# Entry
Amino acid sequence: MAEKFAFEFGKISILFSSTFGLGDAVIARKVFEAIIELVPDCVMDFFCITEAHKKYAEAFYSDIKNLNRLLNRQEYDENLKKYDLALCVAGNHAIFFEHANAERLRPLAPELSLCLDKIEAYNRENVYGLQPWREALALRNMVFAQILHKNFFHFLSCYGALSIRDKKINLPLAPEFKPVFDSFKLGKYITIYSNIEKGEARPKVKTWPMKYLVEYVSLMKKRFPSVEIIQVGGPNDALIENVDREALGCDLELTKYILANSLLHVGCEGGLIHLATFLGTKCLVLFGPTAVEYFGYERNINLVSEVCRPCVFIVPNFQICLRGAKEPPCMLNHKPQKVCKVTCNYLNRLGLKNKA
# Structure
């Protein structure tokens, strides 16, 4: 990364950031690319809100030549107003501006300036009047997605203000991590994600119960003993009993290699599903409180709960089932036997034979 700030190059300078988690950082790359399409020679710095964001920026944006430097909080506070534009992509797929120098942008980047005007008009009409707008916008978008049959990329474009034409993101793989991945000497395998933290008293609503995860692993090992099951996730994730290997808390670049070479990634809708999908890996996704129309990808195997309607964003607490259940009925509806059968059918289509 460069030592100079983006505003020191004499070109259009942009300070970019995204909020919340891993999936949001991956998805925000679409906005990053769309802005570069409008101003191909712009120089962009990335504000890393947390240490995790720094890893996300390195893992998901490092191949883009316009990326100049990663900023910490102090550098952000001291230099914000020196950029021609500072914007943030929020976790509800809204884009808001921290700063914009209209006097420079209008003559030097007219297409970008016009785009910003359209985004601001979109925000005035669809975002700012909602209270609190962060949760309300996400809920509204999820409902609209079910009516319009559009996923979140449609809303991320701010109804066409940004040129987001497809649902693809090409993510880089760091070549220096390939020898590490190769040293594992993996054969055929699938990956799985728990989304449950160690000692968590009440798992998040969009979580498959641990007892179901354990039963699913047991069923799969009986039917496909030659296919390893590798658990991926963070360092604080609870370990699923009897997985063949665990890759919890390993470097994000190594996780990318593991996901990219997996036959199938199994888990609830979330960040690792987005990451695996954009790495070209098919996912078996268990949908419960989130809407498949909004968060789903046609290329994946999407299992939608037959119990309840999507309810996430009605309240801003992902820990609470609106029906008061400790284990949400929507996720309990995904029986291990059914998920195992769907997995087996897919592996059969790949030419693998099961023992059952």
